[in-house]
Write a structure and sequence with these properties.
The chain is an alpha+beta fold and about 325 residues long. The protein folds into two domains: about 120 residues, NADH Oxidase (3-Layer(aba) Sandwich), CATH 3.40.109; about 170 residues, 3-Layer(aba) Sandwich (NADH Oxidase), CATH 3.40.109.10. The protein is about 35% helix and about 15% strand. It has ten helices and nine strands. The protein has a five-stranded mixed sheet. A hairpin with a 2-residue loop joins β1 and β2. This is NAD(P)H nitroreductase. InterPro entries: Nitroreductase-like (IPR000415), Nitroreductase/BluB (IPR050627). It comes from Catellatospora bangladeshensis. GO terms for molecular function: oxidoreductase activity.
């Protein structure tokens, strides 16, 4: 009697489970990892996990959905790298705001060089809150990063010098509002060094000891971390405003896919990335960003691009939940 050979449905289930695990390595606001996967032999479903939503800072779920979009792009790359051709249906169930995407495959295929390069950067990509060095990111690299976002249905608008003054004021104001709001402060304290679930949140070694020298302030976490910021100044950094033509959940999801694509492309090119999400959390400061677009679209996220100091130690990676904590086996549990 011979051992049973794995069927194609078995191969697909393994591929979908692997894609869900890779998707879990995506960046997310405060490293909340607000996604749930359902992997079966017929497809992979992505759903929002509202238990890890920032209810105070992200009441609409914009940043949650952007985070899930990044996970969706990671999962797509995993399937491409595994020799499959993924097909995605976004926002598949109008009856459920939590149903964000369904992935199936149309057959075997070969990953493009671009897909392979982006996939290879998934475990290298990280957030670096330290200042960048005093060298400009090459224009050709910025164009490749911009194109990576465009390929996923979103746009990157490079902010000019006058815009940076407004951005700096908006970022500082967003920090003030976030720290002054009791609910937002408690929420941030929970996810940064608090009693958050194990393997989630932002660890102290990813939070600067002191405020980095930069023209545009990053998020003020309200507490110091242990990350040595060095003595540089991020004045050579370039700031991009990621935006979409609409402002609905489907647009937020696309923005997350574009975030993943341009971040991985930047990593491939040796460019450090710092997302500035606090400035889009506050309606008043988000409106300042929208005016910078002059009616072209809706701001989703500000991204700082720069060259990291090669003499600094690597930033420790943030932890991730094990796949069994974010993937349902077989079927979605009923409430």
């Amino acid at each position: 009697m011979t051992d049973r050979q794995p069927s194609q449905s078995d191969e697909l289930l393994t591929a979908y489970q692997r894609a869900a695990e890779i998707g879990g390595r995506a960046p997310s606001v405060h490293n909340t990892q607000p996604w749930r996967w359902l992997a079966t032999r017929t497809g992979l479903q992505l759903r929002a996990d509202r238990s890890r939503q920032l209810r105070a800072a992200d009441s609409e779920g914009r940043l949650l959905t952007i985070s899930c979009g990044a996970a969706l792009h990671h999962a797509r790359l995993a399937l491409h790298a595994g020799g499959w051709v993924p097909q995605v249906k976004r926002m598949p169930d109008v009856r459920s705001a939590d149903a964000l995407a369904e992935i199936t495959v149309s057959g075997h295929g070969t990953a493009t060089a671009q897909q392979r390069r982006l996939f290879d950067e998934i475990d290298v990509r990280h957030t670096d809150r330290r200042p960048t060095v005093e060298r400009k990111v090459p224009h050709d690299a910025l164009e490749l990063i911009r194109q990576a976002a465009a390929d996923e249905g979103a746009s990157l608008h490079w902010l000019a010098e006058p815009d940076l003054d407004d951005l700096a004021v908006a970022a500082a104001r967003a920090n003030e509002i976030g720290l002054a709001d009791a609910e937002q402060r408690a929420e941030m304290d929970y996810w940064i060094g608090g009693t958050r679930p194990a393997r989630t949140g932002v660890p102290s070694d990813a939070v600067p000891q002191t405020a980095p020298q930069t023209d545009v302030p990053g998020r003020d976490f309200g507490r110091p971390g242990t990350l040595d910021t060095g003595h540089g100044h991020a004045r050579s950094a370039v700031y991009g405003l990621l935006f979409t033509s609409g402002d609905q959940p489907g647009d937020w999801l696309r923005a997350g896919e574009a975030l993943s694509a341009c971040w991985l492309k930047a990593t491939d090119l040796g460019v450090a990335v710092l997302p500035l999400s606090s400035v889009v959390e506050v309606p008043a400061t988000r409106e300042i960003l929208r005016r910078m677009l002059a009616g072209a679209g809706y701001p989703m996220l500000v991204l700082r691009f720069g060259l990291a100091d090669p003499d600094q130690a690597p930033v420790p990676g943030t932890p991730r939940l094990p796949a069994e904590r974010t993937t349902w086996p077989g079927q979605i549990p009923q409430p």
